[in-house]
């Protein structure tokens, strides 16, 4: 196969505009919106406390807001953004995947995962994805549109509401970690993703008050956006979906590599690590007889070693969660073991991801693909 040159559009316009939501607004914009409803400025903080402190987004329950205005407040600033289509659980309820429908019928997925000492939410940044990686169900479905800032933030609110209600065994707390590893390429929706991250980080009552170290942004390697993220000065974790250490193979399995080559991507990641003092995660989906050879493990070690000592990077090997009917499938256990041992001999920090959700269509985009109607032939 040959790589396909991919036309990349940064921050493409949305098809139809999602309804405006409290989550789309800055603090000053929230105050202005409150005043336009005929309320005094201080009510803005009261409303935010309901949302971020009490996890309430039903304006009819804002009992300290005048009853006469709650209906209009809900209609104008708290429209329902996510409609649950289906939800599947596994791991004794500790892994929950939800398919959501948006105002225009677009679908997105989020996955809530409870571990021993943390709770993580994997969220989507786009409806679909335009990166066209052939082994990914989302990439094969194409890009529908960017998500709004509020549609991204709403996924986190829904998860925190589930946790607070005790719907996930072992916790009634809040999320510890957010990973932008669901549907879409986060850095291709840069403005909305960064806006949502700032909402996650903002202390109460105007945000969720999370730690930047608990947020991971994944990218297939949009070099200008990695550089822009570096300049933000936020100590987020950067995860680079490399999947191959050589341009010949990566051109084929990660089409954006036709624009930004392996050395450019790894250089940008290295600069990010230097600037933020945060270790970069190199994501590497193990694909049988495609990228899992010992020779490629040796080459991966060489590529990473050229940038400095091993403290800046960690390799996260991912057993591929195959999509039905796909020729792309998971590596043999023996090949996984040999790949890991090769990296370890070279002193490269490496782990094999604990896979979850194979029995609930856990791979990115699988659940959405199953619930997308087949195109009908023209009459």
UniProtKB/TrEMBL annotation:
Cofactor remark: Binds 1 [4Fe-4S] cluster. The cluster is coordinated with 3 cysteines and an exchangeable S-adenosyl-L-methionine.
GO MF, any single term: methyltransferase activity
Cellular compartment(s): Cytoplasm
Keyword field: 4Fe-4S, Cytoplasm, Disulfide bond, Iron, Iron-sulfur, Metal-binding, Methyltransferase, rRNA processing, S-adenosyl-L-methionine, Transferase, tRNA processing
GO terms (BP aspect): methylation
Domain Radical SAM core: 115-359
Residues given in the record as [4Fe-4S] cluster binding sites: 129, 133, 136
Catalytic activity, EC: 2.1.1.192
Residues forming the catalytic site: 109, 364
UniProt-listed InterPro entries: Methyltransferase_A (IPR040072), RNA_MTrfase_RlmN (IPR027492), rRNA_lsu_MTrfase_RlmN/Cfr (IPR004383), rSAM (IPR007197)
Catalytic activity: adenosine(2503) in 23S rRNA + 2 reduced [2Fe-2S]-[ferredoxin] + 2 S-adenosyl-L-methionine = 2-methyladenosine(2503) in 23S rRNA + 5'-deoxyadenosine + L-methionine + 2 oxidized [2Fe-2S]-[ferredoxin] + S-adenosyl-L-homocysteine; adenosine(37) in tRNA + 2 reduced [2Fe-2S]-[ferredoxin] + 2 S-adenosyl-L-methionine = 2-methyladenosine(37) in tRNA + 5'-deoxyadenosine + L-methionine + 2 oxidized [2Fe-2S]-[ferredoxin] + S-adenosyl-L-homocysteine
Names of required cofactors: [4Fe-4S] cluster
Binding sites annotated in the UniProt record for S-adenosyl-L-methionine: 184-185, 218, 241-243, 321
Additional remarks: Reaction proceeds by a ping-pong mechanism involving intermediate methylation of a conserved cysteine residue.
Family per similarity comment: Belongs to the radical SAM superfamily. RlmN family.
HAMAP family: RNA_methyltr_RlmN
Known role: Specifically methylates position 2 of adenine 2503 in 23S rRNA and position 2 of adenine 37 in tRNAs.
Protein name as it appears in the record: Probable dual-specificity RNA methyltransferase RlmN
Organism of derivation: Tessaracoccus palaemonis
Taxonomic lineage from the root: Bacteria, Bacillati, Actinomycetota, Actinomycetes, Propionibacteriales
């Amino acid at each position: 196969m040959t790589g396909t040159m991919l036309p990349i559009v940064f921050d493409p316009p949305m098809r139809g505009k999602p309804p405006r939501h409290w989550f789309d607004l800055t603090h000053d914009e929230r105050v202005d919106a409150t005043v336009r409803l005929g309320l005094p400025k201080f009510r803005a903080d009261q409303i935010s406390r309901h949302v971020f402190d009490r996890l309430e987004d039903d304006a009819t329950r804002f009992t300290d807001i005048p009853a006469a205005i709650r209906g209009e407040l809900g209609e104008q600033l708290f429209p329902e953004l996510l409609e649950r289509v289906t939800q599947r659980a596994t791991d004794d309820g500790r892994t929950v995947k939800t398919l959501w429908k948006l105002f225009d019928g677009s679908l997105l997925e989020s996955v809530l995962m409870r571990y021993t000492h943390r709770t993580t939410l994997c969220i989507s940044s786009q409806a679909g994805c335009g990166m066209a990686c052939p082994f990914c169900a989302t990439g094969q479905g194409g890009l529908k549109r960017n998500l709004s800032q509020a549609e991204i933030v709403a996924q986190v609110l829904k998860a925190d509401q589930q946790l607070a209600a005790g719907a996930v065994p072992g916790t009634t707390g809040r999320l510890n970690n957010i990973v932008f590893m669901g549907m879409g390429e986060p850095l291709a929706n840069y403005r909305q993703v960064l806006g949502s991250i700032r909402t996650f980080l903002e202390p109460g009552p105007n945000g969720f008050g999370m730690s930047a170290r608990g947020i991971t942004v994944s990218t297939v390697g949009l070099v200008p956006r990695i550089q822009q993220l570096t300049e933000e000065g936020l100590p987020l974790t950067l995860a680079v979906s490399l999947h191959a250490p050589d341009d010949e193979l990566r051109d084929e399995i990660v089409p954006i590599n036709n624009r930004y080559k392996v050395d450019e991507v790894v250089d940008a990641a290295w600069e990010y690590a230097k600037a933020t003092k945060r270790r970069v995660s190199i994501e590497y989906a193990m694909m049988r007889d495609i990228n899992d050879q010992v020779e490629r493990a040796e080459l991966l070690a060489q590529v990473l070693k050229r940038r400095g000592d091993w403290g800046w990077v960690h390799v996260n090997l991912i057993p591929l969660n195959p999509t039905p009917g796909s020729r792309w499938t998971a590596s043999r256990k023996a090949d996984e073991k040999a790949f890991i041992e090769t990296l370890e001999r070279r002193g490269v920090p490496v782990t094999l991801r604990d896979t979850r959700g194979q029995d609930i269509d856990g791979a990115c985009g699988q659940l959405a693909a199953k619930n997308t109607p087949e195109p009908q032939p023209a009459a």
